[in-house]
Design brief:
By secondary structure, the protein is of the alpha+beta class. Helix content is about 40%, strand content about 15%. The protein has 36 helices and 33 strands. The strands form 9 sheets. Strands 6, 7, 8, 9, 10, 11, 12, 13, 14 and 17 form a 10-stranded mixed sheet that branches. Helix 3 crosses helix 25, helix 26 packs parallel to helix 28 and helix 26 crosses helix 30. The radius of gyration is 38 Å and the shape is globular.
């Protein structure tokens, strides 16, 4: 389809001139779409197409309004394609509901709260101080770790150190600098210096976010946009009201010292949004077992004067198993230290554990560990210790090469009766003298010690680890896969089914004894609580986090009554996926108190304790309510900085109570009454919100917090109605990553493909919780498909196109009309269910396929009916409006000559009758039959392979075909269908589980069934079961009608009406059809198996011209 064709106005305007370069020609179609995009967006802006206000005197229902929202993105950079993917789900839904005639609110804000912006600004500031402005960064080869004094290696002269490139620098060079990151965002060097100030980020990136979302074509009401933090005094007031409301309710907040993931560099808790890695990781609490060191040899002799106060500390989750200790494990090459605690005791553990415990009120100075001695784990091999509860009065340190220094303390208790790892490691040492010799293990440290039964598990006896290791035939401690399986079996069964055999709680279930043993050990001074991150967590400031005891404010998520309300809310919501519900249930199962406050960063001060700021996830749980009134307060200024009619200081808690909680109008209120009434009307009309779209990763925090906070503050009628979650977006089947270059900003994607082609690819990427895939080939193909379709509509709706007029009553007309109505019905069904990939399939790809088939059946363009082509163009334009609004806006106004913006037009209403479905089936039947007949004709005309030395014989050409049609299923076919129909649920499209057995029983009990089968009873099952399986699959796919005895349409009439079309398609001289019961069926061509005919599968009879003489 060349761009220079006459009569193609849009394409002619964009056709390349002779002096244009080929590269320019190659982007002409994309550029055309971008031009249409700009024109449509200007039209929408000029007409205020996306601005909707609450109507006066109208109560809201799900039938007349739609309020959808999206987690406001964090403003430390440009929006990327991943943002666009999640956002597209809300955009498609909002556009669809707008085109259903509803009032639609689609707002968009910008999140700036927390540490990420401040951390980035501080990092940039440090770079400028260290490297100058503009900074002169060292090359990758110059980036070396500064060696520490203790890194001096034997043989090196004093003062000389061996350095090495840091791993980060070696991999990324200058990429690690914040200056470079901002450069890659397209910011000129002369402007980057301003980003040393955190507030500059707030003024710079939100307008760019607005630009890019607008370029995407999203129907956002920008009057309601805002940024967060105290920089916006109006939103700051709203967050203060939110916090004060929770505080006044009394049972949702508490100030306490509790374990929380903490950034020492930032000096405050590190919540999910403050992390560079480790989102969702919480604190893991252990019991720290204190094993008293009894003898001090080697390097440990330096601690002998502290005898009685030196303890090997082992972190365990199973304090109830300490009775069965036979030894403790250490890593021979691991780094250990002896650290002084505030009470004078000395703890031996890994340095990482010592760093963690220093933030848990155990050391003299918070966050500082005093190391008295450093040594390798080999110094602890053979070190005797006395461990609490252990039946063995003395146990020894032994080597284990799988001890992790990055988890726990590096000292591991050994209970071989219930730990498969301990049992196999113990066996290895006992069986392998060479291993004992290698690590200097004396026989008396290992050989006398035996497994001690401590817990009975019904399935595994009194020594579960021994039993399971033997059952699984585990050979050594290196059999990792089997050991993991064994551990899973013994630990789970031990907890749920185990019974204590020893100790103060002998006879009690392990579940009951576990907390009792733990508490007794702690009270006796034999153990203490210790916590560390479940996995490694890095703050955005670039430091590994610890778990700290922090004195701050906590939200009491998980509190019994609050949890019950949250579950009630969730139970009444539409989540669009059982997996979504499962993930919420899991989150509510583990989520407990949440650190509400921070000391540093950007945000809002806690109104009753101004030492603290509200952290970034906690100021973002009910802000959807603020969208309903933001335009009244801020008057379209996202920063809230203008000279507005309503002053921020006048928007008090009492004002918000009046608006949101229906409390009396406050006395001496400076907000005009008409504005108060307007805000109350806006909130009461739009709330509750109908849909929140989000990535699945927010289930574990933000979305669950949203449920909790709504149930705390708002009455049940205002609780959220639905959440729709999606997976992450990959790019060309690979994870999006800036470091690998497999990354696109939203603006880049729009400029490269146009908004509409990008939106098609986003819709096509997927709708479920699995990660979706944006395929660049799809986006490029969409450019061609959009422009090709645009040209086709221009050409065929142009005056003088020569399309047929008059009555549209031919078979192809009726089928095409039915296809259009069915496409409307199916596409709208998928829009309602938020299945946008399916909506795209039926409203775009399949509808065009139906058009192309119609054109083919009609014998070309001239045979198509003008009215049907116009109907097709209008319906496709409306159905695709939510996904490709710019192209459709052009078609709507300039080709279909409709008034008003397309985005405000009404979706077509499907008028579907049973006849439509029948016609659709008849059309598909005809196409499938033609395809099958082509293969049959080719097979008949296939020359036979001659024998060796013979000449190939000439082949007769097929000249005619007759279809022998059977009107109804009979005999055993009818019986099978009857049973299948009785066992089929048409709503769920599922068969009874024993349907096959019922069919076989019915066939066995009916003697006529065998009589109707060629080959009799012996062949009945062989023929019947494939037929049954085929019909089952067909019913599940298309519905119960395929189980009827007759086809829903007249098969013979369909063939006779379209005989000429079939004849032409097969290039035959004649084509006809008759019933198998017709007299002419008795004279069928030789080789025709008329008796094989079934409804929908006619028996073909071919006639051929005699082969040419040789």
């Amino acid at each position: 389809f060349g761009c220079e064709q006459e009569g193609c106005a849009t394409f002619a305007q964009h056709s390349p001139t002779s002096d244009q370069k080929m590269a320019q020609h190659n982007t002409a179609k994309r550029d055309l779409l971008i031009d249409l995009q700009s024109a449509a967006q200007k039209k929408w802006e000029d007409t205020g197409a996306f601005q909707d206000d609450a109507p006066e005197g109208v109560a809201s229902t799900t039938e007349n309004k739609f309020f959808g929202n999206f987690p406001y993105p964090y403003m430390n950079g440009l929006l990327h394609l991943g943002h666009g993917f999640s956002l597209s789900k809300l955009e498609f839904a909002a556009a669809y509901h707008r085109m259903q005639g509803k009032h639609v609110l689609f707002p968009f804000g910008f999140h700036c709260t927390g540490m990420p912006i401040k951390a980035a600004a501080d990092k940039l500031d440090r770079e400028c101080i260290k490297f100058g402005v503009p900074p002169q960064f060292p090359s990758a080869d110059e980036l070396v770790d500064e060696p520490k004094e203790e890194e001096v290696k034997p043989g090196l002269e004093p003062g000389k150190f061996k350095g090495k490139k840091s791993k980060v620098a070696a991999k990324t060079g200058t990429e690690i600098y914040q200056w470079n990151i901002l450069q890659k965002s397209g910011i000129p060097d002369e402007e980057i210096i301003q980003f040393r100030e955190p507030t500059h980020w707030l003024s710079y990136f939100p307008p760019l976010g607005k630009r890019d979302v607008t370029l995407m074509g999203c129907g956002v009401d920008w009057r309601r946009s805002f940024i967060t933090t105290s920089w916006n005094p109006y939103y700051d007031a709203f967050v203060r009201w939110h916090m004060n409301t929770l505080y006044k309710l009394g049972n949702y907040l508490v100030k306490d010292k509790r374990f929380t993931v903490y950034s020492p560099l930032d000096g405050q808790p590190c919540a999910d949004h403050d992390r560079a890695s480790g989102e969702g990781v919480g604190a893991q609490e252990y019991v720290l077992i204190k094993m008293e060191v009894l003898e001090f040899g080697g390097k440990l002799s330096a601690l002998e004067d502290r005898k009685g106060q030196v303890f090997l500390c082992a972190a365990t989750l199973r304090a109830e198993t300490m009775y069965g200790q036979t030894n403790y494990w250490v890593l021979p090459d691991g780094d250990y230290g002896a650290y002084e605690m505030a009470n004078g005791e000395v703890f031996i553990m890994a340095p990482r554990a010592a760093r963690n415990i220093s933030f848990q009120d155990k050391t003299a100075e918070y966050g500082k560990s005093v190391c008295l001695l450093e040594f390798k784990g080999s110094e602890l091999i053979g070190c005797p210790a006395k461990s609490p509860l252990a039946f063995n009065p003395v146990i020894f340190g032994l080597p284990m090469l799988t001890v992790l220094m990055t988890k726990g303390t590096g000292v591991v208790t050994s209970v071989p009766s219930d730990s498969p790892d301990d049992y196999m490691a113990m066996l290895d040492l006992k069986k392998k003298p060479a291993m004992r010799e290698k690590f200097g293990v004396k026989d008396e440290w290992i050989m006398p010690f035996e497994v001690i039964p401590i817990i009975h598990i019904p399935e595994f006896g009194d020594t579960s680890a021994v039993k399971v290791c033997e059952d699984l035939k585990i050979q050594s401690q290196n059999d990792r896969a089997k050991l993991d399986e064994a551990k899973g079996l013994t630990y789970m069964k031990g907890f749920y089914e185990g019974v204590m055999l020893v100790g103060n709680h002998k006879g009690k279930p392990v579940q009951e004894a576990k907390p009792l043993v733990r508490e007794e050990m702690i009270q006796a001074g034999q153990a203490l609580l210790y916590s560390e991150p479940e996995k490694k967590v890095m703050s955005r400031s670039g430091e590994e986090c610890v778990v700290a005891l922090t004195d701050q404010w906590y939200l009491l998520y998980g509190e019994e009554e609050w949890l019950a309300k949250a579950k009630e809310c969730l139970g009444g919501m539409e989540l669009y996926s059982p997996e979504n519900l499962r993930q919420f249930d899991i989150t509510m199962g583990w989520l407990r108190q949440w650190a509400l406050s921070r000391s540093f960063g950007l945000g809002t001060r806690l109104p009753w304790d101004k030492e603290f700021l509200v952290e970034s996830l906690s100021d973002s749980t009910i802000y959807m309510a603020y969208y309903t009134i933001a335009h009244v307060l801020q008057e379209g200024d996202m920063f809230g900085k203008g000279d507005h009619l309503i002053k921020a200081e006048d928007v008090t808690d009492a004002v918000f109570d009046h608006i949101f909680l229906d409390k009396p109008c406050p006395e001496a209120c400076n907000v005009p009454k008409e504005k108060l009434d307007l805000m109350r009307r806006e909130f009461n009309f739009w709330y509750p919100f109908d849909l929140r779209v989000s990535g699945k990763d927010l289930i574990q925090n933000h979305l669950t917090f949203t449920v909790y906070n709504h149930t705390a503050i708002f009455p049940k009628k205002l609780w959220p109605r639905s959440f729709r979650c999606n997976g992450h977006l990959m790019l060309n089947n690979e994870k999006m990553s800036k470091s690998t270059g497999n990354f696109k900003t939203l603006k880049q994607a729009i400029e490269e493909y146009s908004a509409d082609a990008m939106r098609i690819s986003l819709a096509d990427a997927g709708d479920g919780l699995d990660d979706a895939n944006f395929v660049e080939a799809t986006a490029n193909a969409s450019i061609l498909r959009l422009t090709k379709e645009l040209q086709w509509i221009e050409e065929h709706l142009a005056p003088g196109a020569g399309l047929r007029e008059g009555t549209a009553d031919t078979f192809p007309d009726r089928v095409f009309a039915a296809e259009i109505e069915m496409a409307i019905q199916t596409t709208i069904m998928h829009y309602e269910a938020l299945n946008f990939r399916e909506a795209l399939k039926y409203g775009w790809y399949d509808l065009q396929t139906a058009r192309d088939t119609y054109r083919l059946v009609c014998g070309g363009d001239k045979g198509m009916h003008l009215g049907l082509v116009q109907r097709f163009a209008e319906v496709q334009c409306l159905l695709m409006g939510p996904i490709t609004p710019h192209t459709c806006e052009h078609i709507w106004a300039n080709l279909l000559n409709k008034t008003g913006p397309l985005v405000r037009a009404r979706m077509p209403v499907a008028v579907v009758t049973p006849e439509h479905a029948n016609l659709q089936m008849a059309g598909k039947y005809l196409q499938d039959l033609i395809s099958d007949l082509r293969k049959m004709v080719a097979k008949v005309e296939q020359p036979k392979k001659p024998k060796k030395g013979e000449t190939a014989l000439p082949v007769a050409k097929v000249t005619g075909a007759t279809m022998y049609v059977k009107e109804t299923f009979t005999g055993w076919h009818r019986l099978c269908l009857s049973v299948l129909s009785s066992c089929f649920d048409s709503k769920t499209r599922e068969f009874a589980s024993d349907v096959d057995r019922q069919v076989l029983d019915a066939l066995a009990q009916d003697p006529e069934a065998a009589a109707s089968c060629e080959g009799g009873e012996k062949m009945l099952k062989k023929f019947a079961m494939p037929f049954v399986q085929f019909k089952k699959a067909e019913a599940v796919s298309v519905g119960a009608h395929v189980l009827q005895e007759r086809l829903p349409f007249d098969e013979l009439a369909t063939l006779l009406e379209n005989a000429e079309f079939v004849r032409q398609q097969l290039n035959l001289e004649s084509f006809t059809a008759c019933l198998t019961t017709a007299p002419e069926a008795a004279n069928a061509p030789e080789g025709t198996k008329v008796s094989d005919a079934l409804p929908g599968k006619p028996a073909p009879g071919f006639t051929s011209a005699p082969p040419p003489a040789q």
